[in-house]
Design brief:
Shape: elongated
CATH topology of the largest domain: Rossmann fold
Number of domains: 2
Strand content: 25-35%
CATH architecture of the largest domain: 3-Layer(aba) Sandwich
Number of helices: 11
Distance between the termini: 41 Å
Structural class: alpha/beta
Order of helices and strands: EHHEEEEEEHEEEEEHHEHHEHEHEHEH
Strand order of the largest sheet: 10-11-13-12-14-15-16-17
Number of strands: 17
Radius of gyration: 23 Å
CATH class of the largest domain: Alpha Beta
Length: 410
């Protein structure tokens, strides 16, 4: 996306109306926004690839500045955020900014009033950012205990490919979800896990079911339509019926999902044996998928490296391959995970990796680095781009693409 240096027709028209009729026009404008929503899209003449998007924020009287915060990767915010500082419409509490945006992307974004324009992103997201109250497209995020704790706004541009699988399709039979609180002696804690069994599941079926384990299970279920996706893929015979285990994250997520061997032992020596005792799942690695998003993608790949006899298929969505242990030194050309695979003989693993075109450069570079390493080693791998950032606007649909590639031919 590129900041548009000229005023959009929307702002020019509003300024003219205020000049003629006074601030009453502001109330009319805001009332209209409540009806039509934001951002405001305007076509560009002789440009079929891009449109103008104007974002609007209504502040309180004390607000002195507003930062527009699109989810495009922190490394793209340069020169003290000058391309993201919104302008105030004179004598009003309306702030605006306009960008030229490609017609095929999806974008998640926030506003940050009175932003200090520093690099403390934790503070920005913990204490400052807010969603666009005029935008009807809202993602609701749940914290611990399933209580909503934050919201984000998003835009889906008109030429963005529609979701085929990650939505509820009327008439598709639904599988069953069993919910448990699973206690771990290894991790010395307990957490929610949910087990999906497909429509028509038979616990006594002679041929055992393939299975998938996903970390950040709550996000896959609540935000990414994972259950609906599984129902659809199975009904339309894109994959065979599969059992899926969703592991909820805890406040220890950043520790557990960064190549943590204790978490690996929990999954392989506590959780999976318990699943085998209670569900009819295969004991063959080629029938097992480990997957996740962000740190979860990193963990999935690490589990493939450590437990190739358990997991034969790796599903990584925007994997955080920039990660390395504190005492590890990477060379200039390789990320930590690439170096691990370079040191060993080829394993019986199949990979699906994806990454967004708007993500941080270090995310993109490390994913490409791992992809090239795996290809050079002769691994069966599919690498896919999607037109968004490090967010929830594609991971549901791309999970479907990953499953079709990894096990769809069985």
């Amino acid at each position: 996306m590129e900041k548009y240096l000229l005023k959009s027709n929307t702002i020019i028209d509003l300024e003219e109306k205020i000049r003629i009729n006074g601030l009453y026009e502001v109330e009319k404008f805001l009332h209209r926004l409540n009806s039509i929503g934001t951002p405001i899209l305007e076509r560009l003449e002789k440009d079929d690839e891009n449109s103008l998007l104007t974002f609007i924020y209504e502040s309180d009287k004390e607000c002195e500045s507003v930062l527009f915060v699109p989810n495009i990767g922190e490394d793209r915010y340069k020169d003290k955020y000058k391309d993201f500082q919104m302008k105030r419409l004179k004598k009003t509490n309306i702030w605006y900014i306009t960008y030229k945006v490609k017609n095929d992307i999806r974008l998640m974004y926030y506003f940050s009033p009175n932003d200090p324009l520093d690099d403390d992103w934790d503070d920005r997201f913990d204490n400052r950012v807010t969603y666009d109250k005029f935008n009807k497209n809202i993602l609701n995020f749940k914290g611990k205990n399933g209580i909503e704790d934050s919201k984000a706004s998003y835009i889906i541009m008109p030429n963005s490919p529609r979701d085929i699988w990650a939505n509820k399709i009327i008439g598709v039979p639904t599988g069953n979800i069993d919910e448990y609180i699973f206690k771990s002696n290894i991790l010395n804690d307990e957490r929610k896990i949910r087990v999906y069994t497909p429509y028509g599941y038979d616990n006594n079926k002679k041929k055992k079911y393939a299975f998938m384990i996903l970390t950040d299970g709550n996000e896959y279920i609540d935000n990414l339509y994972a259950i609906e996706t599984l129902n659809n893929l199975i009904y339309y015979k894109k994959i065979a019926p599969i059992v899926s285990i969703f592991i909820d994250s805890t406040e220890k997520r950043d520790e557990e999902l960064t190549c943590d061997d204790e978490f690996g032992k929990y999954v392989t020596t506590e959780l999976i044996p318990w699943i085998r005792r209670n569900y009819n799942i295969s004991n063959k690695s080629q029938d097992a998928i480990i997957g996740g998003l962000s740190y979860g993608g990193l963990t999935a790949t690490y589990f493939g490296l450590k437990y190739p006899d358990v997991f034969g298929n790796i599903l990584s969505e925007s994997g955080s391959y920039w990660y390395k242990p504190n005492d590890f030194i990477c060379d200039n050309n390789n990320c930590y995970m690439s170096m691990q695979f370079k040191k060993i003989n080829k394993l019986p693993l199949k990979f699906y990796l994806n990454i967004g075109i708007l993500e941080d450069k270090y995310m993109i570079d490390s994913n490409i680095n791992l992809k090239n390493t795996l290809k050079a080693k002769g691994y069966d791998i599919k690498f896919q781009w999607f037109n968004s950032g490090h967010d929830y606007l594609y991971w549901g649909e791309t999970m479907a693409y990953g499953l079709i590639y990894l096990i769809g031919d069985r």
